[in-house]
């Protein structure tokens, strides 16, 4: 893959990773609830979910969606339901969900699970890869070039959210955020519910 083409690919992946949404809210919430390690676990798990979609894209995800639109619709509605469930959970957590370890404790396992599921349950990621990442895939592309596409998406996504988790868990930043955890939980919950409603109301792109 030419370097100029890879730079375009990296820029698109970076814009996708850095755009505000449920993924950022999820990493933020787990960092607040458990500190740096759960935040990093959520970030890495989310990146693996992104990598799965990237892998499916280089294998022809777009053609699969065209052939089986009902399957894609089922995935979309299932994703919307999961995002809504996360949103309701965040709204019900209030202040204690992120601050009081005895309330809703965040563990590495929970963070990793949510990181993966938020990535897989977000139909916007599917459409992002089908609409944009698939443009870099050609029928005669080598296996090495396809691997570069997948690894680029994984490393950029994981690297960004690990930086977010590390930055938010800084000794000066985390207490400030924890003092406002009830507002962060409310904003996170509303954001997730809004995305779920947007998914079921029609196409995202």
Radius of gyration based on Cα positions: 17 Å
Order of secondary-structure elements: HHHHHHHHHHH
The proportion of residues forming helix, as a percent range, comes to over 70%
> What is the total domain count?
1
Helix-and-strand structural type: mainly alpha
Low-confidence stretches: 95-104
Q: Mean pLDDT, nearest integer?
A: 76
Q: State the separation between the terminal residues, measured CA to CA.
A: 28 Å
Give the beta-strand count: 0
Shape, per Cα inertia axes: globular
Number of helices: 11
Largest sheet: none
* Strand residue content: under 5%
Pfam families: LysE
Main location: membrane
Protein name: Amino acid transporter LysE
Keywords: Cell membrane, Membrane, Transmembrane, Transmembrane helix
In short:
By secondary structure, the chain is mostly helical. The protein has one domain (3-9, 20-201).
Sum up the structure in keywords.
205 residues, mainly alpha, 0% strand, transmembrane helix
Characterize the structure shown.
The protein contains 11 helices and no strands. It is an all-alpha fold and 205 residues long. The protein has one domain (3-9, 20-201). Helix 3 (36-58) crosses helix 8, helix 3 packs antiparallel against helix 9 and helix 5 runs antiparallel to helix 11 (181-201). The longest helix is centred in the C-terminal third of the chain and has 26 residues, at 143-168. The chain is globular, with a radius of gyration of 17 Å. Residues 95-104 have low confidence and may be disordered.
């Amino acid at each position: 893959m030419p370097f100029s083409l890879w730079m375009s690919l990296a820029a698109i992946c970076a814009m996708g990773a850095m755009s505000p949404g449920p993924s950022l809210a999820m990493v933020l919430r787990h960092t607040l609830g458990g500190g740096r390690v759960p935040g990093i676990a959520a970030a890495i798990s989310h990146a693996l979910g992104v990598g799965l979609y990237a892998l499916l894209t280089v294998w022809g995800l777009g053609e699969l969606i065209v052939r089986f639109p009902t399957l894609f619709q089922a995935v979309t509605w299932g994703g919307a339901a999961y995002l809504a469930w996360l949103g309701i959970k965040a709204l019900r957590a209030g202040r204690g969900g992120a601050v009081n370890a005895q309330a809703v404790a965040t563990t590495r396992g929970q963070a990793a699970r949510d990181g993966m599921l938020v990535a897989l349950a977000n139909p916007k990621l599917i459409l992002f890869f089908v609409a944009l990442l698939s443009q870099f895939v050609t029928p005669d592309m080598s296996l090495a070039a396809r691997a570069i596409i997948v690894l680029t998406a994984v490393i950029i996504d994981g690297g960004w959210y690990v930086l977010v988790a590390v930055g938010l868990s800084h000794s000066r930043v985390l207490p400030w955020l924890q003092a406002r955890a009830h507002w962060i939980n409310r904003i996170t919950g509303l954001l997730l519910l809004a995305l779920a409603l947007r998914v079921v109301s029609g196409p995202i792109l």
